[in-house]
Design a protein that fits this description.
The complex is a heterodimer of chains A (370) and B (538).
Chain A lengths: L5 H28 L4 H12 L2 H25 L8 H18 L4 H30 L3 H23 L1 E2 L6 E2 L26 H17 L1 H11 L1 H6 L4 H18 L2 H8 L10 H11 L4 H23 L5 H40 L2 H7 L1
Antiparallel strand pairs in A: 1-2
Helix pairs in contact in A: 1-14, 2-13, 3-7, 3-10, 3-12, 3-13, 4-5, 4-6, 4-10, 4-12, 5-6, 5-10, 7-8, 12-13, 12-14, 13-14
Chain B lengths: L1 H7 L2 H11 L7 H4 L4 E12 L2 E12 L3 E6 L5 H8 L7 E6 L2 E3 L4 H6 L2 E4 L11 H6 L5 E2 L2 E2 L1 H14 L15 H14 L4 E5 L7 H16 L3 E5 L3 H7 L2 E6 L2 E6 L6 H9 L17 E11 L5 E11 L3 E5 L6 H8 L7 E6 L2 E2 L5 H6 L2 E4 L3 H5 L6 H6 L9 E2 L2 E2 L1 H14 L16 H12 L6 E5 L7 H16 L3 E5 L3 H7 L2 E6 L2 E6 L6 H8 L7
Parallel strand pairs in B: 3-10, 3-11, 6-9, 9-10, 15-22, 15-23, 18-21, 21-22
Antiparallel strand pairs in B: 1-2, 1-4, 4-5, 7-8, 11-12, 13-14, 13-16, 16-17, 19-20, 23-24
Classes of the chains: A mainly alpha (370), B alpha/beta (538).
The complex binds adenosine-5'-triphosphate (ATP) and magnesium ion (MG).
Chain lengths: 370, 538
């Protein structure tokens, strides 16, 4: 953990790589079984996926996924399963959209108010689950699932009060946020007609903050200690209730950011077709990335790439559900692969130690260690 | 300190140590033909990252005997037993049971071959009955239905024939440690074990319970059961074992008969050098009160009194011992002082400050060190490296943190210091705490809690699972700190420790302090009977 040995890095990468390769094989088998040409599908997807415009699309989608994974991972590190990221970000995005249209402020301030609203609402919605857990012992798994459902109906209800028809479609949504509340895009991918979400900067900063806060601060230590052993954490002076509350609020606040790239960089309105289900994708990505800031970033890009490529599959008359099969298989096999790699690395470590001891040949040295 | 000894020891000394141990074969040939080898281990080697836990172990255990295994912390005893129980696979070597070579892939293979193990930390489910615990995983069934009747009969049968005296329908949470241990043994016998492994079974028991356990063991061996037994208490080993194998740094150095050795010789065989002699005692008690507990009362959820009106004061430089059979309120007392339990009444104060309403962290920051009785549950993050475990419980104090930041360099350097000063045997401070042997985990915790000069040390069984050499070293550390003004609340099942270290002793029984004992005058036997309430005035 403290030093970057090449061997350790290889071991860390082994599990996700194995899982992805395995998932690719399964997907190929499914393709072959349904009579679709495997190789040409791969090349089609690859060619399509490496176009600048699609790369930009992938990156934009990954930005959203990454924020969702971070929100989930904060809970995971403490053994809390925040299944409710989904409801939290939708409610947050809705509230942010409403606030965004109803205040008029100069540019940076307007943006700030919108984002803070989202974080606040996300945190509050997660806070309901936290309070239930701390005061009544209700499992956060159950309560957040319930809160997801409640969020769905709540948004539908409120939307019916404030929504107007979106111009030129039969979609209904909030009034568009004025220009001063937009997050400017950045031309990140050369040759792409599509700008990248400016919010990608916020996502990167959030990833760094996640890593630093968990790994390097007292608060992060308390959080990880509670996740590893609640009883030991209590004996060490951690107030578990306080930690549950804080980490749920934090997770919810980050969840509040999930809808922002879309809201502030593309749609500027919360409408009926605002993307849903991102919270669940976040769970899969956090699992694949092992709650690690960099690991989750790579996983987010992979998932986004697969999503983007589903478009071309559809065009080529290959069922795009194949992407879901692949994503699902990755998540399942990564869990197995982590366990296999863990066992293998222990065995390998022992062989290495015994080799080193044998080549030293001096028994006194060996005894020092025991 | 011990490490240095060992490095510079000349090879001749080792030769001497081994030759003293080879028991004279003629004198014991009568015993030899009494039992053939139930277990034979040959050339067992087991490596872990950075350490060789077992190296070329050879030993034979005769059927129907109690065979003790002794050795320093980290010598490789538990590892060897886990290998025999199929929990670990040896890298080299072979195991034979009743003359047949076997290869275990899991504990259930071992159970099928008649090997059972009772771990040092009990693994019973509190909210189930004895019966349910015993059959758990081996549920008896008839036509697909659970058949508890048959199981109950069989438990009674086993209990009667080995004199275990276990009631099948009691809830495990109502049982004391001695009873729980018998349940663990029964559970293993129920699965048909003919070879019983007990890893430090006496560490949690008071003398009377130890005697009962030993009576049980004799019944078992009388019926042809073979017992393998690990302990750090050498007097007990000499009392109960038929044969003793000494393991030093992973390898068997001697097998001796108890009649041929003294406890001191045994210790020297284990360590490979002479033991440090205990210091002569001098009183350092002052009249400055440090920890004051008044009328402390703790109730269970159902309102039963677990602790009732407990009061005492510990002064600077004083060690107050609390003697009692486990489960009489000691755990509650400690947790109440540490702020981990809701009080029904009473106050706790440190110097002149009332800390009754303080959370645990604030108490620790105020200078209360805490050695918990269950190191796995309360003392360690098993899957975190040693240096992170140095931080645990001291998350707000230097050298672990600077402001809101973790000070890695500081924590790591201080972990190195603890490893050195407390002789924690580990390849590095980056290994996970789970990789240390039980005794070495304990040494790390003691070292951590003695860091930063605490004002008060709440010590539950501070040397539990620690070998004799390390025990003496920990006592020295505590005595030194006491001389500098440390106040210690000492709870221990080891009566020698309690009498040797305490300036005064109080006896706890059913949640009340029932007697004061002068450690200068009391014997372990007298203290033992006071603890069971047999004799309220000593
Ligand atoms: N799972 C593991 N991974 C790595 N090292 C291990 C593991 N288990 C044990 N060890 C190491 O093997 C050595 C022997 O440990 P073992 O637990 O057998 O000692 P022990 O004789 O039972 O000591 P104690 O008296 O302290 O319980 C120790 O150095 C320990 O650190
Ligand atoms: Mg052990």
């Amino acid at each position: 953990m403290s030093r970057l040995e090449p061997r350790k890095v290889a071991m860390t990468l082994a599990a996700p790589v194995i899982a992805i390769v395995f998932a690719a094989l399964v997907t190929a088998l499914v393709l072959a079984a349904t009579g679709d040409p495997v190789w040409s599908t791969v090349t089609t997807v690859w060619d399509y996926g490496s176009k600048p415009r699609v790369i930009a699309l992938t990156l934009n989608q990954a930005t959203t996924y990454y924020l969702s994974a971070l929100a989930v991972a904060i809970g995971f590190r403490m053994n809390l399963f925040n299944i409710g990221v989904d409801g939290q970000y939708r409610l947050a995005a809705f509230a942010a959209a409403v606030v965004g249209t109803s205040v008029s402020l100069p540019k940076p301030l307007h943006l700030l108010v919108i984002v803070l609203t989202a974080m606040l609402v996300g945190a509050m919605w997660a806070g309901v689950a936290a309070v239930l857990k701390v005061s009544r012992g209700v499992s956060e798994v159950i309560s957040t699932i319930m809160l997801n459902a409640i969020a769905t109906s709540l948004i539908a209800f409120l939307l019916s009060k404030v929504a107007t028809d979106v111009a030129g479609s039969n979609n209904r949504g909030t009034d568009p946020i004025p220009e001063s509340g937009h997050f400017p895009g950045i031309p990140l991918i050369p040759g792409s007609p599509l700008d990248s979400f400016g919010f990608i900067i916020v996502a990167v900063l959030a990833g760094i903050a996640y890593s630093v806060v968990l790994g390097r601060t007292r608060f992060g230590f308390d959080l990880r200690a509670t996740g590893r052993s609640e009883s030991a954490a209590v004996a060490s002076g951690v107030s578990v209730k306080r930690m549950v509350l804080l980490s749920m609020l934090l997770s919810g606040a980050v969840a509040g950011l999930v809808g922002m790239p879309q809201l502030l960089g593309a749609s500027y309105t919360y409408s009926i077709d605002f993307p849903a289900g991102l919270g669940f994708t976040g769970i899969a990505i956090a699992l694949l990335g092992r709650n690690n800031a960099v690991g989750m970033a790579l996983s987010a890009v992979l998932f986004a790439f697969l999503d983007a490529s589903s478009v071309i599959l559809d065009i080529n008359d290959i069922s795009k559900e194949i992407v879901l099969i692949m994503q699902g298989t990755i998540v399942l096999s990564v869990v197995v692969a982590y366990e296999l790699v863990r066992r293998y690395s222990i065995a390998a470590e022992q062989r290495r130690v015994s080799r080193e001891l044998a080549s030293q040949g001096s028994p006194e040295r060996e005894e020092v260690a025991t | 300190m011990h490490l240095v000894h060992r490095l510079h020891r000349s090879p001749t000394e080792e030769g001497v140590a081994i030759s003293t141990s080879s028991a004279s074969p003629t004198a014991d040939s009568r015993r030899d033909d009494q039992g053939s080898a139930a277990v034979e281990l040959q050339g067992i080697t087991k490596r872990f990252p950075g350490v060789v836990a077992n190296r070329d172990i050879n030993m034979a255990v005769r059927r129907g005997q109690v065979h003790a295994v002794v050795g320093e912390n980290g010598a490789g005893k538990s590892t060897l037993m886990k290998i025999l129980y199929g929990m670990q696979r040896p890298d080299e070597g072979s195991i034979s049971i009743e003359g047949r070579e076997v290869s275990f892939h899991s504990p259930s293979d071992a159970i099928d071959a008649g090997v059972g193990m009772v771990h040092q930390h009990f693994m019973l489910a509190d909210n189930l009955t004895v019966l349910e615990n015993v059959v758990l995983g081996r549920e008896p069934s008839r036509a697909g239905m659970l058949d508890f009747g048959a199981a109950r009969r069989r438990i009674k049968e086993i209990s009667d024939s080995y004199g275990l005296d276990v009631e099948a329908d009691r809830l495990v949470e109502e049982l004391g440690v001695g009873d729980r241990q018998r349940v663990e043994i029964l559970k293993v016998l129920y699965r048909g074990a003919k070879i019983l492994i007990l890893d430090e079974p006496t560490a949690v028991l008071v003398p009377q319970e130890v005697d009962e356990l030993f009576d049980n063991l004799r019944e078992l061996t009388g019926e042809g059961i073979t017992v393998l037994f690990i302990s750090h208490k050498l007097d007990e080993v000499l009392a109960v074992a038929d044969e003793i194998t000494v393991i030093r740094r992973g390898t068997t150095v001697a097998t001796v008969r108890p009649a041929d050795v003294t406890a001191r010789q045994l210790a020297e065989l284990m360590v490979g050098s002479e033991l440090p002699t205990p210091e002569t005692r001098e009183s350092t008690v002052t009249d400055i009160p440090v920890l004051r507990v008044e009328a402390l009362t703790v109730r269970s959820l159902e309102g039963r009194a677990l602790l009732e009106g407990v009061s005492f004061t510990i002064h600077q430089g004083e060690v107050l011992g609390v003697a009692g059979v486990e489960g009489n309120g000691q755990a509650e007392l400690v947790e109440a002082i540490m702020g981990m339990r809701q009080l029904a009444g009473g106050t706790v104060s440190l110097a002149d400050e009332d800390l009754t309403a303080w959370p645990t962290r604030r108490r620790r920051e105020a200078g209360v060190g805490y050695i918990p009785e269950d190191r796995h549950r309360h003392g360690l993050l098993l899957d975190a490296p040693l240096w992170e475990n140095r931080i645990l419980g001291h998350q707000t104090e230097p050298p672990n943190v600077k402001g809101p930041w973790i000070d890695r360099a500081g924590a790591r350097a201080d972990t190195e210091r603890i490893v050195r000063d407390y002789d924690v045997r580990t390849p590095s401070i980056d290994v996970l705490a789970a990789a240390l042997s039980g005794g070495n985990q304990q040494k790390l915790i003691v070292g951590r809690e003695m860091s930063g000069s605490p004002k008060v040390l709440i010590a539950s069984h501070p040397t539990r699972g620690v070998d004799v050499g390390a025990q003496a070293a920990i006592w020295d550390h505590i005595r030194t700190a006491r001389r500098e003004g440390l106040a210690v609340l000492l709870i221990s099942a080891d009566l020698d420790e309690l009498i040797g270290l305490s300036d005064s002793i109080k006896v706890i029984l059913r949640g009340r302090l029932v007697a004061d004992v002068d450690p200068a005058e009391v014997t372990p036997e007298a203290l033992g009977s006071a603890m069971t309430g047999a004799d309220e005035k000593v």
